[in-house]
Batch of 4 targets.
Target 1
Amino acid sequence: MRARTLIVFSCLIGLLAVELLIFARYSPAKHASAAWSRADVSAPCVVNYQLNQWSNGFTAQVQITNNAMASSSWTLTWTFAGNQQVTSAWNAQVTQNGTAVSANNLSYNGSLPAGGSVQFGFQATFTGSNQIPTNFALNGTSCGGNPTTTPTPSVTPITPTPTVSPSPTSTPVMSCSGATFCDNFENQTGTTPSGVWQVTFPNCQGTGTVTVDHTVAHSGSTSIRVDGHNGYCNHALFATQSAFTGVGPDLFVRFFVRHTTALPTGHVAFLTMQDANDGGNDLRFGGQNGALQWNRQSDDATLPAQSPAGVALSTPLPTNQWECLEFEVNETQGSMRTWLNGTEVAGLHLDNVPTPDIDAQWLQNRPNWRPSLTNLRLGWESYSGGDDTLWFDDVAVGSQLISCA
């Protein structure tokens, strides 16, 4: 009997020990400590928003740092406080509905590991104030608090070293070997371009002017001068409908340009071509963020992307000296190449292989872009820039690369 009592007592002691272990492991005090630890970790995501702003537009370079679980795709959402309107983007597909904006990864940058970062950017317009968004959420989870910001521009305009050239004098007229269309403007005798060229002021007319100049020329003694001013109505160009006649689908254009003011931070253009396959909208060549760029009017896609890496792959257009610009547009392949003084510009190369910071955005928006160009216009269009005085000379078009010499 005594032995049986000892066995029962031992069993009771064992059960009590198990209960104590369970209570120690799952006590309320331990729960409170775990909740405090979870609340102490950093925010699930951090957004760095770098702003580069001008009078009525801006670019934003956005970096997302993921402090949560790894993800194979990502979506960043936010809401604008004003009337900001996204016009284009790079390294992300950015859509907008009212003030709500959503940025989704592209095929090559969807992986976002824990602790990892990814960058994308966009361009937008605005009027009034341009407040930085504060309600960013990554994959539906709020990043919390305010984003970190960089007050200085994320893209520093490329400023060429000013070159002062002596006053141009008359030189032998340049050869047009290999060109289907060629004009050195030596046949212009009046004060306004005539013949195959017609002065045009798209949309409305302001104070911009186009004149024949017999004092400044690249070759010969005549050029076309354009005095361009800031503002939409100050667009001033001279155009020809015959430049591309009989050339074929692979177009090469060469022209010389001399201008007085460095390309601004905002968007400007000095050459446009209407595209019959894009509703008559323009394919535009000019500059932004201090460097040369291509721009598609219908969706504001740019080549290169206006990211810091993209702008760095382009080049400024030096001032106060004649520069030779050449480009190819292959309408069948939907490709483009561009040369400055015989050297190809890496950031202005469009092919059918999306390259981040160059043509990924262009192809993402319109993967089957196939232009049909109908005219050639030279001059000045300012969307967010300023004044500039430009001279154009020795324009040539053909079906092969035309020499600058």
Target 2
Amino acid sequence: MSKSRVRGVAALVSTVLLAASLVALWAGSAPAAGACGVGYTLNQWTGGFTAQVHLTNNGAAVSSWTLSWSFGGDQKVTSAWNATVVQSGAVVTATGESYNGALASGGSTDFGFQGTNSGTNAVPTDFAFNGVSCSGDSTPTPTPTSPTPTTSAPPGSGCAGAAFCDGFEDQTGSTPTGSWQASYPDCQGTGTVSIDHTVAHSGGTSLRVDGGSTYCNHAFALNTTGITSVGAVKYVRMYVRHTTALPTGHVAFATMTDAADGNKHLRLGGQNQALQWNRESDDATLPAQSPAGVALSVPLPVNQWSCLEYMVDGSTGSMSTWLNGTEVAGLHLDQTPTPDVDAQWLGRSNWRPQLTDLRLGWESYAGGTDTLWYDDIAIGSARIGC
């Protein structure tokens, strides 16, 4: 069954994992006397982290909420989703949004944020809900969960507001069925598409692609319902994990058919070892493949789950791309020219894509193999977040 909007997940339930350099920790449970319960999941890498927070109201119903805490190190919040998060010195305050600000007694909600740090990054212990301590008469003790090598976040997280959300949990066999079908466009080589029941970002299932080199190894899973479920402005969120760094040559791992461009593909992939958009019809790249342009993009980390988001606005011809919550400057497109980024793309006037499907997989145009996993795919008309 497809994963639905995240609601009412029991506080303190954590299926978190240690995959590559990711570390997941949950804050301890607040005693019954405390104002709230907090689950705090960290995903860390060198110099940065994301935190997913599961908040439960242990008291009377409230029409709005704030959750505050103090960082013990040099952590700095840089962005957030499903809450407004502000920081003053070490003190951080998260405020609920209009759609999740009211919490019944025993009700819960989820939000998250991204930050930077250079030192230790311990789980906070002084949470307060609307100014009242969440720990009652004692201080909760952070408790690490046992590492699980196949997942890195609570199952089903991050689908709020999505029109389409799928974690492949309804796939019981080894071949994609239902909403996803194996697709080998142009010609079929040794590349394969399968359902993996041993590696997942959440739950126990993911989509796996074993991508071969050369043009004839195109291998994808095709979905024709998600993209068409929303209007001209399309936001896509996926979690992706792969084993081999993006090569120097051109590759693509997500493509969409553009009905307004002769059914050619809009392709997200990489070149010169960094993420890149490519327009099949005229081979335009974003960013420009100069040293300065490539420097404005980023690699796709290997051997860990990464949250990759993008927006394509068919009414204005603009695009934005985020990796783990941070927008990639070289993958931003609007109607204002940006040196070393969009000269090729803006060379065609009035580009207005009409996207009709989504393919997840692998195609290589200059050599290069990779093994990739995809999970927790979400599509909506507004940004969904990680």
Target 3
Amino acid sequence: MTDTLSILRFGSFQAARQLHAAPKDRAEARLHGHGFQVALSAPEQSSELGHDWSASLDRLDHQALHTLMDDASDRGILNFLTEGFGSQRHEMALSSMPARGMRRNLDGEVTAWRAYRFESAHQLPHVPPGHKCGRLHGHGFQAVIHIPVSENSTGWNTDYQKLDLAWAPIHAQLHQHYLNDIPGLTNPTSEWLSVWIWEQLKAVLPELSWVTVFETASCGAHYDGEMHRIWKDFTIDSATEEAGMTLGHTWTVRLHLKGPLHPTFGWAMDFADVKREFDPLFRCLDHQPLTQVKGLLSPDSTGLAHWIRLHAHLVLPALGRVDLLDGCGGGATLDWGAGGIQVLAP
């Protein structure tokens, strides 16, 4: 697969809206407000990531959205923002609340997502002796469910209600339960949990396109019915040079790995192994002046992504994508073999 570099931009705006298509007894029909989060991903050579991006968000900030557009639903706002970039290729994601949002991919396809939290206990019965996950413990898990949005959407975010109805019986099975006792989850790794959720939802949501399970805030698994992907986050605190000034960032580094599940352990790779193998590279970047890192072509998100891609594949052969977020509303994604959905927020 050819390396694909995308530049990321993140922004936000505050706005009010009233969804005229909503039934009168629904809260969405009344005037209400949100703090919206928006993410943009575009090819490296695209020109829309500067003034045009900021201007697009500024024209919506502190406005009554239903007076600016015919459809002020999440999909309508996403369409409104997308139209401002004309024919330039990009992906965009909008989040109207912390646990829900919509995305538009490069082909113009829109998906809706909802995030659901559940608190559960588990243990992994097949891990090597002494592995901490072999002991009984628990997590505050989060599942993120994605479905395509049809062209016949009514204009008042009905896709979220559909997801809520489908999730409710699954939540009842998982929340405050011991996962190992649930049929099909005797080895409840994040990967198998994502498969189990997929299989439960697919029966009632045949259009289901993606399931993400957060085991913790910094690691988890994706499943799309065919391919297993995992990710692990790291933060590096480093200094850099920009416009002749010495600056600093806390970068978030997200490593994406893809591959089959181990027949015994039930994971694509142990998150602890990802951390151990990446640690020497992490130490080269963390608490360092990036201008002095050997082989780093540019001390920014793009340069870091290329540097990590060059060095990490030697110790993490399943690695196929790196996301870099700079903490100031920017970042980059370098993908050469993992694919998947774009990052939503910093």
Target 4
Amino acid sequence: MILAAGQGTRMRSSIPKVMHPLLGQPLIWYALHAAYHATGSKPTLIVGYGAEQVRLYVQDSADFVIQEQQLGTGHAIQQVESLLRGNADFILVITADMPLLTSETLHNLIQTHTTADPKKIPITMLTVINEDSHGFGRILRNENGDVVSIVEEAVATPEQLAIQECNASAYCFSADWLWEALERIPLSPKGEYYLTDIVSIAVEDHLAVRAMIIDDPIETIGVNTRVHLAEATDILRKRINNNWMLSGVTIIDPKSTYIEPNVEIGQDTVIWPNTHLQGNTSIGKTCKIGPNTLLLGSKVGDRCEITTAVVEFAEIEDDVEIGPFAHLRKGAHLAKGVRMGNFGEIKNSYLGPETKMGHFSYIGDANIGANVNIGAGTITCNYDGERKYPTEIGEGAFIGSDTMLVAPVKLGDGAQTGAGSVVTKDVPENTLAVGAPARAIRKLKK
């Protein structure tokens, strides 16, 4: 179960807390990812404030249960009983605002609990030793070192506040015992039912509560304010960058490099400073990316060089060189060996193998063959104010500098245009067209 019903008032936002973005993904994405990989099953998501917005994003990645009234974490778990009672032996419970908690830690928590006798140890909980409590409740132990209760920070005594072992709000329960114990959670002075009170119930039943102290306290950092969000972003960014460097990727300046969690990078690729890799971007082997480059939702092949460019939802095959100061927009597809010069822009167009595109050019809604030379300043005039029109250029064509191709227009294989031409009509293959408007003046040798 993932608890995600709270509004998160300290975020001071109309957006549900779990939908605030962290490295390109909302907080809830990290909880869903960790829970699924730890258990191998679809999680149950308990939602409340902004439920429809959360449901629209999550869709079928989780089962949904709505907590109509937010009456505490214990009350939230009670809403799931009718769905899960009799269908599970053990229940993992986490919160949606701890994006740094890994599936490995959750898997260890599950393993620790399921290897014990569920009739003697109905709860295994995650705890953390930390001088900064981050608002977590304190773990109270008896003289034998056994966990006896959790006291919330707001009601803790000064002596209890000095305790450094804190509740990390991740639990594994024996299911049959959990459903019975939930009915005995007392109502707090605030009129809520707290899941933390279930520890005292286990002790009253003369049962043991096992605490697993987490190795890395950073994993337990929760997000309750935008300051916490920035803190988590910084930690997660470092974790991702370190993982890629250990996997064989060179990152020249990790502090200025931003890589989101869904990005894939091949070995021996070099990422230069001020580079942002976002969305479902994949980069092949032995590439050079950056500096000052943004790749969003794009696919890059092997041995490519992209310098000071913006690439959005584009496909780039092997051995392509781009930039500096280039812009590939949605639908751009550069085949193997393409060269794209300074200050060029491509949108919804295919450039065939070994084609070269000169500086200060715009190619939109075009299909361009192999081994074409596109001179500097070439423009496809693809929009008439109401509709977009295509341009087709055949293999081996040569487009002179400052040519304007007024779509719809087609140039055959081996066609050429003179510098400054305005092409408004089709140019046959192996034909030279010049002028404004351009006219065919002679056939060319193949």
